Amino acid sequence: MIRPKLSLRRPLAVLAAALIGLTGAAAVATPAAAHHTTITATVVCDQLSGERVITWTVANSERRTAATVKKVTAEPSTPVQVLVPGADPVDLQGVAIPRNGSVQAVQRVPGDTASAKLIVEGRWDNRRERTNEGTINLAADGACTPAPKCVDASEAKYSHTFDGPKGTATVKLEGDLPLCGEEKQYFTLVSYFAPRPQFATPQYVYGEPDSDFLGAGQNEIELNVGVPDCHTQVDLIWGGVDEVIDPLVEDGPRYGSKKLGEKGAPGNRSSGPQGWYNGGSKNCTTPASTFASACDGSVTVSLSNDGSISKYPVEFEVRGENGWSKTVTVAPGKADNETVVPAENAGKIEVLVDGEVIENGTYSWERPEDCPLPTVTTDADCETFGLTASNPEGGMPVKVEFTYGDKTETRTVAPGSSEKVTFPAGDEEAALVVLPELGLELEVVYAPEGCGGGGGGEEPPGLPVTGAAAGGIAAGAIALLALGAVLFVMARRRRIHFTA
Question: Where in this protein does the record put region Disordered (predicted)?
Answer without folding.
Answer: 256-279
